[in-house]
Every structure is written in C-alpha cells, then in structure tokens.
C-alpha cells in the first residue's frame, strides 16, 4: 500500500489539485473528486483505486470540454465525438459525456438537422445539404425526414435569388449568352440544386424560354 502525503491546490487552476503519494507527485484531479472520494493526507491508497479515480477525473474533464464545445456552436453527435477525440480523451469518457449531453438535450441530431436545413436552404439545394449532413454523421432516416419538409417552390425561388446575383457578376465579363448560361448552370449545380430546378432558373434568367 502507498500513502497520500500531500494534496495541494494548483496555482493556475483553483478547481484542480495535485496529489502526492509517498512524497512524490502522483496525479492531478478535479477538486470535487477529492471530497467525493474522501481523499486525505496520510491515507493509504492502492494502484487500483488511483486508476479508478483517474477514470472518473477523465470523465469530468471530458464532460466539461464537451459542454464548452456545444456552448460555442451547436454540434452533431459525430462532430462532438471527433472534436473530443482530437483533444485526446478516451472513448469511454467521450461516450459517457455524449450520453449525458443527449440526456439533457445539449445535443440532438434531429434538432441539429432541422436547424442546419433552416440555416442553409436559402443558399443551397437539397443535394448539397444532404451530402453535408451525411458528412456530419446524421443518419439517413433523420436526413430524409427533415429534408422532405423543404418546400420545392421556395427552394426554386431561393435558387433564382442566388442565381440572379451570380448572373449579374458573370455578365460583366462574359458577352456570350451560351457560355454565360453554362457558367450559371454549373454554379447552381455546385450549390446542390436539382437538374430540373437549375434548368428552370437558367432559362428564366437568360430569357431562353418564356416561363
């Protein structure tokens, strides 16, 4: 058995303490855990208990980091998991933290998809929105359910609004009507609009057909 010989508050972070075992620095942890675990100087402690306390501390740090992340910007579950992995947290602490955040509504992929679509559908078509949501780890079922609420007429109006701005820019340096329409066509396709929507908008703007 080893003995805790000193517990001292860190100078730079008053919420964390350094624990010394047998007069040597052993580990640091959240000060809250000191009280929860009943750690005291001159107390005997074994390696198994140190490891268990370390796991609890890692979870608390991971949960705090997760909360700071979602406070700044709303994240999908996959985005949050990826960020925590990059910060070096272990997978068990990450999964426990995510479950905690899900339980209290800090992350919700259904809500994330709806908010993302609401934010992007004025400047992007369904295809691009769907592709981006897949990259963010949103399930196909959630995507299809959320994206089905996009009004087709409203989407076409949004496509027209961004296309007319692009047309005015291109027209300043391109006189050839065919080349102009092709550039506009490619631009709208890159924004994720369907072929039918793009054809309609390009024809309307370039007056190739009466709509």
Automatic annotation (TrEMBL):
Gene: recX
Domain spans labelled RecX first three-helical: 62-101
Protein location: Cytoplasm
Entry keyword tRNA processing: no
NCBIfam families (alphabetical): PRK00117.4-1 (NF001058)
Domain RecX third three-helical span(s) in chain numbering: 155-202
Family annotation (Pfam families): RecX_HTH1, RecX_HTH2, RecX_HTH3
Function field: Modulates RecA activity.
Family membership noted in the UniProt record: Belongs to the RecX family.
A cellular component annotation (GO) from this entry: cytoplasm
Keyword Cytoplasm: yes
Record's keyword terms, sorted: Cytoplasm
Span of domain RecX second three-helical: 108-144
Name recorded for this polypeptide: Regulatory protein RecX
GO biological process annotation, one example: regulation of DNA repair
Broad class of the protein's primary localization: cytoplasm
């Amino acid at each position: 058995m080893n003995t805790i010989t000193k517990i001292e508050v860190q100078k730079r972070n008053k919420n964390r303490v350094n624990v010394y075992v047998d007069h040597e620095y052993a580990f640091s942890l959240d000060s809250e855990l000191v009280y929860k675990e009943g750690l005291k100087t001159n107390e005997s402690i074994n390696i198994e208990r140190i490891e268990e306390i370390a796991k609890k501390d890692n979870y608390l740090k991971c949960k705090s980091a997760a909360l700071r992340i979602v406070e700044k910007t709303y994240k999908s579950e996959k985005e949050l998991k990826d960020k925590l992995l990059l910060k070096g947290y272990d997978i068990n602490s990450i999964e426990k933290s995510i479950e905690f955040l899900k339980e209290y509504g800090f992350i919700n992929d259904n809500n994330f998809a709806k908010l993302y679509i609401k934010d992007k559908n004025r400047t992007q078509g369904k295809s691009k929105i769907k592709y981006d949501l897949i990259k963010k780890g949103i399930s196909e079922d959630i995507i299809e359910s959320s994206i089905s609420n996009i009004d087709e007429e409203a989407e076409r109006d949004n496509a027209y609004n961004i296309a007319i701005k692009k047309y005015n820019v291109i027209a300043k340096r391109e006189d050839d009507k065919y080349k102009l329409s092709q550039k506009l066509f490619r631009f709208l396709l890159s924004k994720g609009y369907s072929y039918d929507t793009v054809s309609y908008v390009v024809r309307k703007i370039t007056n190739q057909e009466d709509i």
